[in-house]
Amino acid sequence: MIELDGVTVRFDDVLAVRDVDLTVEDGEFLTVVGPSGCGKTTLLRTVGGLQDPTAGRVRVNGRSPDAARANADLGYVFQQHTLLPWKSAVDNVAFLREMAGKPGDREGARRLLREVGLEGFEDARPAALSGGMKQRVAIARAVHLGADILLMDEPFGELDEITRERLGVEIRELWRAERKTVVFVTHSVPEAVFLADRCVVMESDPGRIVETFDVDLPRPRTDEVYSGDAFQEQVAAVRGVLHDARSRSSTVGRTLTEQ
Length: 259
Ligand SMILES: Nc1ncnc2c1ncn2[C@@H]1O[C@H](COP(=O)(O)OP(=O)(O)OP(=O)(O)O)[C@@H](O)[C@H]1O
Ligand SMILES: [Mg+2]
Known about the structure:
The protein is an alpha/beta fold. The chain has nine helices and nine strands. Helices cover 42% and strands 23% of the residues. Helix 3 (89-99) runs parallel beside helix 5 (131-144). Residues 40-41, 79, 153 line the site of magnesium ion.
């Protein structure tokens, strides 16, 4: 479980995150959308112990984020992949798990690479992979770590639409089979709704949560769900709130430049 209590993160005069209260239950799939610069990455980094809050408290499985990370409770897929250039895809996937002191499992690493569509590239170095392929290695690496909680920051950013949809379904399946807790940041509203149990909309300057939607669509999420009216209505509702948040953000920007 992730618990954020009055979390604020300030960088000089930027209030990247203001007073966020949020609880993510075990096994929940939470998605986060919001305009660029509204603090999504900062919020995720705070949960992951990579950024200290200026105020407030973060607990991950009842521990500090640092302790949770040390215990390999948290897996992180960054907005930009962070693969080791001198290691092959399979070694990159296996590395974090071994660093965390868990038994090595090359076969498992190879299986995950196949599952994310990288069969035949297991022994390739990152330089020989496209941006989307590198992101898929990073996803496989986070899953292979075996953490209960996956923090994913636009993990599908560099992927084409078909691969995005396929990997989205796979991530959800994995989440269902292994009861992971997932916090997933995306700029795609349909993706956010399709994947989520709950979807959080943020606005910027200061970065805060403006609305939380319970996504009450049938599970498993199938093609029928995707093309159904209930899904479209939910997407429209989230888009409406996001649109309002965007226009408020740009008004703030204008006011500042006019001053
Ligand atoms: N290390 C830092 N030092 C100073 N300012 C920062 C730092 N990290 C983020 N910021 C600022 O905090 C705000 C939120 O940034 P953040 O990266 O969290 O946004 P985001 O919602 O992830 O945006 P995007 O959708 O573009 O990835 C921005 O104004 C950004 O300039
Ligand atoms: Mg970001």
